[in-house]
Amino acid sequence: MKRWLKPIFRQGGVLKRRLPVSIQLEKWMPLLKHVKRWLVYSGVALLLLFICAFGFLYYLREQALPASAISQTSQMLDAQGHIIDTFHAGENRQSVPLKQISPYLVEATLAIEDQRFYDHLGFDMKGMARAAVVNVENMSRKQGASTLTQQLARNLYLTHERTWSRKLKEAMYTIQLEMHYSKDEILAMYLNQIYYGHGAYGAEAAAELYYGKHASELTLAESAMLAGIPKGPKYYSPYMDMKNAKDRQRTILQTMVDQGILLQPDAEAAGAELLRFVPLGTSKQAGTAPYFRDYVRYMAVDKLGIDERTMSEGGIRIYTTLDPDAQRAAEEAVAAGIPADSEQQAALVSVDPRTGYIKAMVGGRDYRTNQYNRVFAKTRQPGSSFKPILYLTALQEGVLTPVSQFKSTPTIFTYDEGRKTYSPSNYNSKYVGDFINMRQAIASSDNIYAVNSIMTVGPEKVIAMARKLGIESPMKPVPSLALGTFPVSPFEMASAFSAFANGGVRMEPTAILRIEDAKGEVLYEAQPASSTVVDAAHAYVLTSLMESVFETGGTGNRVSAMIKRPVAGKTGTTATDAWLVGYTPELATAVWVGYDKGRKLTPVEARRAAPIFASYTEAALSAIPPKIFPLPDGVVSVYIDPQSGKLAGKSCPDRRLESFVSGTEPVEVCGVHGEGDASGTQDSGAQAEQTRHWWKQLKRWWSN
C-alpha cells in the first residue's frame, strides 16, 4: 500500500503535499546548466582578457616610445663658467638632473599636482573618482585628475586636442612611461619640460628667468611660487598678476602643511616673504661680448660642423676662452676712447700669446645698431704696424741687425728690374737727414728705412714670414708692402704679434675650448696647433726694439705713462686707418680705429688707437704683477754707439745697451770719439744696465 506524504501546509484552503528533493532539483536543473555554462564562458573570457591584457602590456613594454620633439636650450660659457649666451628655437629650456633641483620645488610640485605620485602606476584612481564626483556636483569640469605621468605623456608626445583618440594614446604612453622609467626619472623629465611662462621650459630656465639663480638654489617661498605657475602661466605668473600668484603660492604652502610636509609656522613665514624677481626681459648675460658670441657660433657651425638644429635645440654647452674681466676692460676702453657723438668706429681683439686663447673681442662701438665685426675686416691697411714683420724677416735672414743703418732722406727706389720706381715719404715729410739704425726707425716709424730694408731682404721673404705668422690676406711683392699698404684684419695682426710675445712660437687662435652635448659627453675639444716661426732669440731682439715705441721719441710715448709694465708694440697710421698693435708677456692686442666708409681721419681721430690700447692693457692686467720679457739663450747685450753702429768706446757720449742674436753683435769699437777699448767694460756694464732697466720698469709700475 502506497504511503502518502503528510500535508505540511495549506494554500488557498487546499492541502498541498511536499515534493521529493530530487524532483525539486530537477525543476532547477535547466537554470543551473545555464549558470554553469555562463561561469565557464566567463572564466574563459576572463582568461582571454587576462592573456590579451598581458599581451598588450608586453607589447607596450617592448615598444619604444616615440621620439620627443622637446628641445633644450644650448649655452655658451666664458672662461670662468658664466653663461654669456643661450640658443633656443623659441623655447628656453635647460635640462638638469633631479638632484640639481631644489627639494622645495619637488615637494611643492608633488603636493599641488600629484600627491600620490609615488604610489600609483600612472593613473590615480582615487583622484579620478574624487574629480568625477566634484564635476558631477558642479555639472562641469571643475577638477582634473591627470597625474604627472599623464601630463608628461601629453606634453612629450601629443597635442592638447580633446578627442578620444588622443586620450587613448595618452593612456598608452602613460603606461609605457611607467614601464620604461623609474619614478625619479619621470619626475625629473616632468620638471625639465613643464612650461613656466614667458618662454621658460623647465625648472632651471624658470629659476633663471624669475630669480636669476639655479634651480638648486631656490628657497621654499620661491619654489612654492614657481610650482603654482604651470597650472596657468597667464594667470599665476608674478609678472602678469602678483595677487593671483601670491594666492596660488599660499594655497600650495597650506597644501604642504595639510600633507604633513611643512609646519604651519614655516608655511606662514614663506608666504610672508618678500621675493625679488629679475626684471622681465633682462638676464645675467645680456649684452656680453656680442661680437665674440657671433664669432663662436660661426666657428661652431661653419668650422666644427655643429648643425644649426643641434645648436638651437640640442642643449649643448660651448665652453669658450673669453675672459669676462678682459672683455669688460675692452668694452670700456673702446667706449671711453671715442666721443659718443662720433661716427668713428673701433675694433679690439686680444689674445693670450702663450695659449692662443682669445680673451677679448670688440667688433664695433654699438652691436645693436651694427653687427658687422670689424675685427675680421680685411679692408684696412695696417700701415706702419706691419713693419715689425718686415724687420723680423730681415733679422731672421741675417741681412740686417739692430745697428744696420740707412739714411733718412727722400729717396726714389727702383724695382722690377729698373722698370718701375717708388718714392715713399715720411709722415708729415719729416726726415732725420742722416743715418739711423733699426731701433730709431721703429721708434720714429721711418718709412725710408723700412723700404730700404724690404729692398735688402726681398718682399717675397716678407710675405712668406707673414704667412707663417697667420696672415692670409692677399699681398704683392712690391716695395710698398713695407709700409703696410695691403689690407690685413686686426685678428691677423693680433695673432702675428702674439708670436713675438711667445718667443717666436705662434699658437693658433682659439675661441672654443670644448663642446658638450646635453648628457655631458664631449663633442669637440680644442687642441690648438703651434708652430715655431722664428727662434726665441730673434723674437726677443725684435721685442727689445719695439719697446722703444713707448720710450721718449717713440710714436707711442704719449701713452707710456698709462702703461705700468713692460710693453712692446707698433703704431700704424694711414689716411683712413689708425692702429696700435702691441703686447706684454700675457696679452697680444690689436686696436684699429677709423670710419666704415673710408672717410679720412683728422689728426685727433688718428691718435685714438693708442689710448684705447693702453687703457685696455692696464685694466685687463690690473690683477697681474708686471713681468719683463724673458731673456732666452742666444742673446747678447753690448753697448753700442748709435751714431756709428759700432761697439761703444769709453769716451762715446751717447752709448746705449743693445741686444743682438749671438754672433751678430758688432766687434769693431767706435773710434769717432777718441781711442778706447770697449771690451773691458762691456760684460759687466751690460749686466748692470739690464738690472737697472728691470728696476726702472718696476719703479714705474709701483709709482703709478
Summarize the structure.
This protein has 22 helices and 23 strands. β18 and β19 form a beta hairpin. Helices cover 41% and strands 13% of the residues.
Describe the structure.
With 704 residues, this protein is α+β, with helices and mostly antiparallel strands. Among the domains are: 1-62, no CATH class; 94-272, Penicillin binding protein transpeptidase fold; 387-486, DD-peptidase/beta-lactamase superfamily (Beta-lactamase, 3-Layer(aba) Sandwich); 635-703, no CATH class. The chain has 22 helices and 23 strands. The strands form eight sheets. It has a five-stranded mixed sheet with strand order 4-3-7-15-16. Strands 9-8-20-19-18 form a five-stranded antiparallel sheet, with helices on both faces. The protein has a three-stranded antiparallel sheet with strand order 22-21-23. A hairpin with a 4-residue loop joins strand 11 and strand 12 (420-422). It is elongated, with a radius of gyration of 41 Å.
